[in-house]
Amino acid sequence: MSILIDENTTFIIQGITGREAVNVTRECLNYGAKVVGGVTPGRKGRDVYGVPVFDTVRQITERMRVDASVVTVPPAFAADAAMEAIEAGIKLIVIVTERMPRNETVQLIELADQYGARVIGPNCLGIISPHKSKVGGVGGPAEDTRKAYMPGPVGVLSRSGGMTTEIANTLTAAGLGQSTAISIGGDPIIGNTYADFMPLFEADPETRAIVIYSEPGGTMEAQLATYLREQKSRLPVVAFMAGRFMDQMPGMRFGHAGTIVEGKADTSAEKIRRMREAGISVAEEVSEIPRLVRERLG
Amino acid sequence: MAMFIRVEVDPQVAGQADLVKKLVEVCPVDIFATGQDGALAIVEQNLDECTLCDLCIQACPPGTVKVVKLYE
Amino acid sequence: MRFYEYEAKTLLRRYEVPLASFRVASTPEEAAATAGELGGTVVLKSQVLSGGRMKAGGVKFASSPQEARQAAAEILRLPISGQVPRSVLIEPKAPVAKEYYAGVIYNTLAKRPAIIFSDMGGIDIEEVAEQHPEHLTQATFSSLRPVSDYKMKEVVASLGITGNELTALTPILSRLARAFLAHGLTLAEINPLARLENGSFVCLDCHVDMDEDARDRQGALLQELGIGREETRQARPPTPFEIRGAQIDAQDTRGVAGRIVEFDGDLGLIIGAGGGSLTLFDAVRKYGGRAANYCEIGGNPSVSKACELTKLILSKPGVDKIAVMMNVVSNTRVDIVARGVIKGVVESGYDPAEKIAIFRIPGSWEGEGFKILRKYGVEYYDRSVSMDEAARRAVAKMQTV
Question: Is A256 a catalytic residue?
Fold first, then answer.
C-alpha cells in the first residue's frame, strides 16, 4: 500500500511545455506514471512525449478521470492555475512553483478546503510511491529514481525536495524501503504540514515508521509533536534537523523561504527539544536515520 | 575556449538554409546561429552549455552532426 | 521586507487608519521648522529598520523648535543595531489614556490570515502572550472574502470590551486587515494603538513587513513609497561579495547558483540546494571546518553560472580550496555542475585536482559527471559516501595542508 498516489493515479501537468516541465513529463512517463494530459494556454493540439496538450483543465476533465495535477507555471500565474484545477474538480494539487506570493498561496488553499481538495507545496518536488508512480520531479530521471527509492515500510515527509531523495536513498541503501515519500514544500505556508499527512499514514497498513526532514522556521514540528502526543499514534517518528547553525543568526534567511529564525520557538534547538519530548528520535546526521528507524521498528 | 564539448557539422549541412534554421531552433542552449552569409555559425561560448539532448543530431541526416565530448 | 515607520504609516493612512499628522525630516533644521509648524510638544523618532528604538535613545520629545533641532541632531547621529537613521519622524505628542495592540499575520498552521488583539498595548506582544494570556485574543479570517467588520467586532468583544471602545476599535482592525490582504504583507501591526483622553483612537507606532515574493505585484505601492528594487532590507546589508553573488545568480534564468552569505573561513563552499546546503553547512561546522561562504545551487543552473560562482569564491582572500557537495540531485545535473566548477577553477588559474578538496554530488547524469571529474583528477564520491562523511573528508584535507 501507499498513500495519496499509486499505479492507477492519473494526472495532468499544468505548464507542460516549460523547460523543466518537459523534463518532469519524460521522467514521470519513464517511471511508469500515468500522465494523461497537459495544459499550456494557446498550445492546444501539440503533444509532449505523446502527452496531449490542451488550453484549459476542463478540456481534459470533461474527457477523462483526472486524480491529480502538477502545477509548474511561473509564480505570477501559479495560484490561478491551481484554482483552475481545483474548480475543475481535481482533488490532489501538487504545486512545484517557487516564489509564489504568500497571500495567493493562502487563497488557493482556502479554495481547496472548500472543494475538499488537498494541496501539496508550493515549492515542492512532488510525491512518489516507489515502483508504482511519481507525481512531480521527485527523484529525477526514472533510472536515478529507481536507484534511490524502493517499496517498504517507511513514510518520508520532507521540507526539502532534494533531501527527500537523499533520505530515501540512505534508507534504500540500508534495506529500508518507502511506502510513500512526499516533498511537502519549502515555503512558510504549505497546503499540508507533517501532522496533516499523519492520519493517512496511520491508515496505511504498510507504513510502520515515519522519517521527517525539518528546518528552522515555523511551528510545524511543534504541531507534529502535539499530534503524536494527543493521537497516541502507532507510528514511530525519526527526524533529521538541518540548519542548526542558523540559531546563531536570527533574522537571516538561508535556504527555503520558510527558513528564518524569528523567535525562540522556531530555532532548531527548541524544535529538537520539543520533538524529543514527544518521543521523536532526532538523528544527528542523515546516515544515522536507518539505525534509528530499525531501533524504533523493534 | 570550450573545454568539454565540440560540435562537428558536415559542410554540406552547414550550407543548407533549411537545416541551419532547424539547428538554430532545436538547440535549447543556443549553440547554433545563422551567420552573416546565411551559413551556420557555432556560438563558441555556448558549447560547454550543451545538455547532450541530441536534438541537433536528430534534426539532420544521420552522421552529419557530431557532438564530441572532449573529456572522453 | 520591512518598512520604515513613515512608510508603514503612509500605507495605513490610505486605509483611513487614524494617525497623528506626522512629517519626516532629514536634517535638524527641517526638524526645527516642522516642530514650529506643528506647535506644542512633539515626538521625534529615529527611522531605522529595527525595534527597541525607545531603549536605544532613538525617541525623544521636544517642546520648542530649538529642542527639536537638538533632539533631531542627536537622533540622526545615533546608529541603532548598526543602522544609521534615514530620517526622523515628527508628530504631535498625544495625550494617551490607554494602549492597545492590533496585529495581522498569517497563522501558518491554519493557513489563514489571523487578527491578534490585546488591551495591553505598548509592550512586546510575545511578553503579553506569555505573562498575560487572558489579555490576548486572536481569530483567523477568510482570505477569499472581503474583510468583515463582524469578525473584528467578535475579536474585540471577546476581551469584554463594549460601548464606544468596541465600535471605534472594530473598523480600525478591519482597515488594518484590508491593507494586509491587499498589499501582500506578512505583518501589519499597530502597537500601541492608543485611546486618547478625548476618547478618540490613534495609531502611535506600527510595523509592516511585505512578502519578498509579492514585490512584483506591488510595484505601484513600492514606487509611491520610493522603495527601489536594490533595497533588500535583510537583517544586515549585503557585502560586496554577496552583491556580486546575487548578480551572478541573476545573469540568466537557468537554475540558482548564488544566495551567497559571506563568512571568514578558508574553505569555499559550492553546495546545494535548499535543504542540502543547510545540512552540509552544519556538517562542515561540526567537523571544525571554517567556511568562507554559504551558498545554494539548485534548479539545474547553467555551466556559466556555476563557473562564475566558482571564480567569485576562489577570488575571495583566504580561500584555499573549495568543496563541491550536494544531496542526491534530481533536476540539477552532476555533469553540468562538474563542467562549471572545473571551468571556473581553470579560468582562475588553478589546477582542479589541487583546488577542489572534494566533489560529492550523486544523482542525475552522474555517470557523465564522474567521467569529467576523472579526466581532471578531482577526488569525487558517489552516493555511498554520506553528506556528513564528505564534509568530514573535505575538512580533514584542509587541516593537512
Answer: yes
